[in-house]
Design goal:
Blueprint lengths: L6 H11 L3 H17 L3 H11 L3 H20 L4 H10 L4 H25 L5 E10 L12 E11 L7 E10 L1 H18 L2 H9 L2
Antiparallel strand pairs: 1-2, 2-3
Helix pairs in contact: 1-4, 2-4, 2-6, 3-4, 4-6, 5-6
Length: 204
């Protein structure tokens, strides 16, 4: 099968078509580094100066190459299919050999990254809570507590309705609950950041 990339990904990769083989090899290393650790703006700035383009263009090219490699692994392309896909994108035979060699050598590592990203983690299903206080005899020592029963669901098979539910009982005081809420809100804001969205788009 031939891999079909979105138009914007094709446009991002187009920068690499006109570059020498050694530059393409450098971009392959940048793509692998992106998969391992995320974007590295300093390296993109250096590459942009060498190629006399904007750093954003370098970053887009790296992300386009990441998408090509990830989608090829996701669809389990054979070396022949990967070869044909690369040629349809406009790369020369020399470039194709460079990309195919990189794909063949790093395929397992990319699979490992994908398996970590697609690992099905438990997700929220329901939450019950109640306030608890000590007896009247100990009112001078009372610290209100909140007891929560958190229900998490995990898929157990390919079917969307095949799940198991796990109940976790938690207990905390109001002050700590406020702190937990703040930390979760910060994490939610980070997930909506431009950096996080770029990474998420690379794996779609």
């Amino acid at each position: 099968m031939l891999l079909s990339l979105k138009d914007d990904h094709k446009q991002h990769i187009s920068l690499l078509i006109s570059q020498p083989t050694n530059v393409l090899q450098d971009f392959c290393r940048l793509a692998l580094d992106y998969l391992r650790k995320g974007p590295t703006p300093k390296l993109y700035q250096t590459a942009a100066q060498k190629l006399d383009v904007q750093p954003e263009i370098i970053r887009n090219a790296v992300e386009g190459l990441v998408n090509l490699l990830v989608e090829s692994c996701r669809h389990q392309l054979s070396d022949i299919d990967f070869h044909d896909t690369v040629l349809t994108l406009g790369f020369s035979e020399e470039h194709q050999e460079t990309l195919e060699s990189f794909y063949r050598g790093k395929k397992q590592e990319i699979y490992d990254v994908l398996s970590q990203l697609t690992l099905d983690q438990p997700h929220y299903h329901d939450l019950e809570w109640r306030f608890e206080v000590a007896s009247r005899a100990l009112q001078h020592q009372v610290t209100p507590l909140i007891t929560m029963n958190l229900a998490l669901e995990t898929k157990t098979g390919l079917a969307s309705d095949s799940t198991t539910t796990k109940n976790i009982v938690l207990q905390t005081d109001p002050t700590n609950l406020v702190h937990i809420t703040q930390v979760l809100e910060e994490a939610l804001q980070e997930s909506r950041s431009q950096h996080s969205r770029r990474i998420q788009r690379s794996f779609k």
